[in-house]
Structure formats: structure tokens, C-alpha cells
From TrEMBL:
Organism of provenance: Tribolium castaneum
Domain Ig-like: 40-133
Protein name as annotated: Ig-like domain-containing protein
SUPFAM superfamilies per UniProt: Immunoglobulin
Length: 268
């Protein structure tokens, strides 16, 4: 009769042999997707995988967002395909390796834009096995401009506004003062195309002394923060807004001004 220790020894040998013979099939070793990428930059999303020699009919697919929309497919011996939102946005000649079974495993996005923000899923499958991994990418667009200004208000009041344009994703915006707490700030955001226009406006008691205000814009996902500071002075600051209007109308007004000046010189 065989002893218990002999049975254990034979079981161990069988387990090791089985592991060597049967392998692990398809395995994604590393999915490289940047968490944040700046607008306009090229970016590579790589799906590094290995597979056993016994695996057959390899297919590499990439899906976009939670609804798993197919955006890329490659079958060895065939040309890779960009589909859906990635159609005509990929360098389909990009080679991620020299291995014929993984040369076109990666996505080479020519230009990152806001609508490419989302979840990317790599699927590597054969007739025998499959492995899937998902990671998220954010395409970050810093603001084109950040303004902190004083608006017209009723007697005894003042209005302070911070305005940012051309930013993505939607930022967090807040107003601050060195002299007092600012409460009841009205924050609005409007999507214009793919980018946001955001404003924060507060109505406060009129100034008695000069006061420094600041506006803070944050995009937590991108670890991005920018501030604008300025000092406002007591008194009616309506000319600030009138100046904004003047700048907006200046081409017409300036042309009219030149015309009147020329007529005046002619009369003289």
C-alpha cells in the first residue's frame, strides 16, 4: 500500500507537470493608458500581452466607454481597422513590437481631443481563451483666458465676477476675498462645442476700502489649479464694464471717429 507522503509527492509532480503542459492561454501583462493627456498631443495606448503557442485565431479589439463601443480591431495577417470615434484618428501603421502576433496591439491616437476622454478596454482573444482590461483617460484643456472683473450693481452693492473660457473638463470655480467670506456665489457653466465657459458671480456690499479679490479655477482630475488676483477700490466702477463695451464696439466707433475727424479737418 502506498503511503500518504508518497501520494502527496505524486500529486505535486502532477500539478507542476499540468501547469507546464497547459500554460495560461492569453494574458494581458500591462495596459498602458495615461490618466491625463493634454489637448492636441499625440498619445499611445498600449495593450502588452502574451499568449501560448497553442492559441489559435488571435483577435485584438479596443472598446470605448462603458457601453463598450468597438473602436479598433486587428487580426494578424490583416490590416488594423479604426472604427467609430477613432476612425481616421489613428496611425494604423504604428508598430508596438516586432512580434507578428502583437505588432499592432496598440492605439496611436494622432491628436487627443476632449471627446476622446473616457474608458478604454483592450480585449485579446483566441478560440481557447480571452483577457480584458480597462483604464480611463482624460483629455485636459486649460482655459484660454481667466478674467476677474467688477460689474455694474445697484447703489450700495458691488458685483464681482470670475470668467473662464475654453476649458475641459468642467472646472471647479470659486471667489475669495482677503477681508471677508464670500457666500452665495452663483456658478454657471455652458458647454460650447467641446469646451466649457464657466463663470462665478457674487453680489456684495459696496467697498469702503480697497480690497483684494481672487478667483480660483481647479480641475481635480488633472491636478490643475490657477488663480487670478486683483484689487478693487471704493466708488462707482461702471467704467470697467463700459470699457469692455468700448473694446467690443471699438472697430465701428474708431472708424466713425476717423470719419468725423477727417470731415472736421476738411472744414478747417
Amino acid at each position: 500500500m502506498m503511503s500518504v507522503s508518497s501520494l502527496c509527492h505524486i500529486s505535486t509532480i502532477f500539478f507542476i507537470t499540468a501547469s507546464i503542459n497547459f500554460g495560461t492561454g492569453v494574458k494581458i501583462n500591462k495596459l498602458q493608458v495615461p490618466e491625463v493627456i493634454k489637448h492636441g498631443a499625440p498619445v499611445i495606448l498600449d495593450c502588452d500581452f502574451t499568449l501560448d503557442d497553442t492559441e489559435e485565431d488571435l483577435v485584438v479589439k479596443w472598446y470605448f466607454n462603458k457601453n463598450k463601443t468597438l473602436v479598433y480591431q486587428w487580426i494578424p495577417a490583416l490590416k488594423p481597422q479604426g472604427l467609430g470615434i477613432l476612425k481616421d484618428r489613428l496611425n494604423l501603421e504604428y508598430a508596438a513590437s516586432v512580434d507578428a502576433n502583437s505588432v499592432h496591439r496598440a492605439l496611436h491616437i494622432l491628436k487627443a481631443v476632449p471627446d476622446l476622454s473616457g474608458d478604454y478596454t483592450c480585449s485579446v482573444s483566441t478560440l481557447q481563451s480571452e483577457d480584458i482590461r480597462t483604464k480611463s483617460m482624460l483629455v485636459f484643456v486649460p482655459e484660454k483666458e481667466l478674467l476677474l472683473r467688477r460689474l455694474e450693481a445697484e447703489e450700495g452693492l458691488m458685483r464681482v465676477q470670475c470668467l473662464a473660457d475654453g476649458v475641459f473638463p468642467r472646472p471647479v470655480m470659486s471667489l475669495h476675498s482677503q477681508e471677508r467670506e464670500i457666500e452665495g456665489t452663483e456658478v454657471t457653466a455652458r458647454l460650447r462645442g467641446q469646451l466649457y465657459e464657466v463663470s462665478a458671480t457674487a453680489t456684495l456690499p459696496a467697498l469702503k476700502d480697497p480690497e483684494e479679490f481672487s478667483c480660483e479655477l481647479r480641475i481635480p482630475q488633472a491636478n490643475y489649479t490657477v488663480r487670478r488676483e486683483t484689487v478693487f477700490y471704493p466708488g462707482n466702477k461702471a467704467p470697467l464694464i463700459l470699457m469692455d463695451r468700448w473694446l467690443a464696439l471699438s472697430p465701428c466707433i474708431f472708424s466713425l471717429y476717423l470719419g468725423l475727424t477727417r470731415q472736421f479737418i476738411g472744414l478747417c
